[in-house]
């Protein structure tokens, strides 16, 4: 598909908009529809779109394997870490109101980090799934 | 939506079935917007019509393309499905009518979230506030489930460098 | 007649659920079974969200000028359910790919025939 000039040009034009839209959905999820899951899926979709048009190797230059696998685990650890921070500062696990002197600001902080962790893991998993399925060649002569 | 589902049942070319599934996801997302569920519609559109379709196409490429013709007429499954449908219809008569403000679903916890949510968390999007703050443990479990699915697929599909005999 | 008009969303839900169930139990192709499972899951989303809607209400995002909001609780549950559903689908597809490599087919009859 990389020989088709229309697809190439459109892909290069659309990719940055998709990534910025993913960031917008992630951070604006407090004030409108959105949040961690949607943002993670949109970010993964942007890179999958690029990889479909330019080939899997080009996509893996953008998001290498080690980065994707790290993102997978880092998101869950971030979420659990926010919970532990709640314990360290005096509350129960995953209490947000102890994260700041003002309890509403503490809620804002907790929700921000938690959504970031969720978005990170979801984007990593969706990308990894695509890499696994697209990178496996069909062994028609096996079995 | 019913038309797409019936077409999916009858269609035997699996590529056509996957395309119909994508159309069905989009229609479902539109219906969800009409039902005021904007967060859910965004997720359903992104996940159902985006990721699910990509994964199904990937799996379709790795396996076959057409479904075999059934050997006998599927009368028993059809009768079983109709019986289950009849039981479900009987059960749903007892459910509250569409958009009934007196339904129990609107009573206990939901008004509290709607009224106190803005004061306690300062976030206008109540769905995000409930998801991340009031029901934060559920979201932690869900993130763990997504992580586990990724690990499971890696374990199943990873190729080892040495191809043993 | 209010049994039909008042419960319209439930009729659609039951039809989708039964169609998904029919695909799962009557078709032998593993990929088609997985798609039937996905249809069943989406019908359950509809089952939960439809009763939460209030006619005249709006999406549950607090803003000035609106007083009636649709119920946010089903939205939260279904958001989680959608993501778990795609995780299940991904694992199921990985299993189907491995079955294809091990048995050479994804038709259930042929797989069971090879086992004997």
Low-pLDDT runs of 5+ residues of chain A are none
Strand-and-helix sequence of chain B, N→C?
Answer: HHHHHHH
Helix content of chain B: over 70%
As for the number of domains of chain B, it is 2
Task: Explain this structure.
The complex is a heterotrimer of chains A (143), B (165) and C (116). Chain A is an all-alpha fold. Chain A is 74% helix and 0% strand. In chain A, helix 2 packs across helix 3 and helix 2 runs parallel beside helix 5. Chain A is elongated and about 60 Å long. Chain B has 165 residues and is an all-alpha fold. The longest helix of chain B is centred in the first third of the chain and has 25 residues. Chain B is extended, with a radius of gyration of 22 Å. The C terminus of chain B is likely disordered. Chain C is mainly α. Chain C has one domain: Helix Hairpins (Orthogonal Bundle). Classes of the chains: A mainly alpha (143), B mainly alpha (165), C mainly alpha (116). Chains in contact: A-B, A-C, B-C.
Topology summary:
The complex is a heterotrimer of chains A (143), B (165) and C (116).
Chain A: H1 5-27, H2 36-54, H3 56-62, H4 65-88, H5 103-135
Chain B: H1 2-10, H2 14-34, H3 38-62, H4 75-92, H5 110-121, H6 126-134, H7 136-157
Helix pairs in contact in B: 1-2, 2-3, 5-6, 6-7
Chain C: H1 2-5, H2 8-26, H3 30-49, H4 73-103, H5 108-115
Helix pairs in contact in C: 2-3, 3-4
Structure keywords:
heterotrimer; A: mainly alpha; 5 helices; C: 116 residues; mainly alpha; elongated
What's the short version?
The complex is a heterotrimer of chains A (143), B (165) and C (116). With 165 residues, chain B is mainly alpha-helical. Helices cover 70% and strands 0% of the residues of chain B.
């Amino acid at each position: 598909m990389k020989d088709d000039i229309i697809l190439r040009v459109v892909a290069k034009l659309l990719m940055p908009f998709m990534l910025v839209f993913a960031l917008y959905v992630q951070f604006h999820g407090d004030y409108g529809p959105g949040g961690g899951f949607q943002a993670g899926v949109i970010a993964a979709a942007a890179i999958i779109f690029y990889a479909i048009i330019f080939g899997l190797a080009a996509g893996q230059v953008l998001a290498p394997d080690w980065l994707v696998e790290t993102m997978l685990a880092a998101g869950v650890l971030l979420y659990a870490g926010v919970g532990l921070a709640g314990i360290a500062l005096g509350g129960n696990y995953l209490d947000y109101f102890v994260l700041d002197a003002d309890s509403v600001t503490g809620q804002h902080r907790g929700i921000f980090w938690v959504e970031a962790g969720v978005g990170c893991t979801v984007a990593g998993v969706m990308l990894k799934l695509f890499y696994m399925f697209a990178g496996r060649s069909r062994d028609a002569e096996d079995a | 939506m019913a038309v797409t589902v019936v077409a999916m049942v009858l269609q035997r070319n699996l590529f056509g079935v996957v395309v119909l599934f994508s159309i069905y996801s989009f229609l479902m997302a539109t219906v969800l917007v009409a039902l005021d569920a904007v967060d859910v519609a965004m997720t359903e559109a992104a996940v159902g019509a985006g990721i699910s379709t990509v994964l199904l196409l990937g799996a379709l490429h790795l396996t076959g393309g057409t479904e075999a013709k059934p050997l006998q007429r599927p009368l028993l499954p059809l009768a079983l499905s109709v019986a289950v449908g009849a039981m479900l219809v009987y059960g749903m008569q007892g459910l509250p009518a569409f958009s009934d403000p007196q339904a129990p679903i609107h009573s206990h916890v939901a008004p509290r979230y709607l009224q106190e949510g803005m004061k306690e968390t300062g976030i206008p999007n109540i769905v995000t506030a409930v998801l991340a703050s009031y029901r934060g443990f559920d979201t932690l479990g869900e993130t763990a489930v997504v992580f586990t699915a990724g690990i499971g697929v890696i374990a199943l599909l990873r190729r080892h460098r040495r191809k043993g005999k | 007649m209010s049994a039909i008009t008042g419960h319209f969303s439930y009729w659609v839900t039951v039809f989708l659920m039964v169609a998904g169930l029919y695909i799962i139990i009557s078709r032998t192709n593993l990929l088609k079974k997985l798609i039937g499972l996905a249809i069943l899951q989406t019908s359950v989303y509809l089952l939960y969200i439809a009763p939460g809607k209030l006619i005249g209400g709006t999406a549950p995002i607090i803003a000035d000028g609106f007083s009636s909001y649709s119920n946010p609780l089903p939205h939260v549950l279904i958001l989680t359910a959608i993501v778990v559903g795609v995780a299940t689908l991904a694992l199921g597809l990985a299993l189907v790919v491995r079955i294809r490599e091990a048995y050479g087919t994804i038709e259930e009859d042929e797989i069971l025939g090879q086992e004997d």
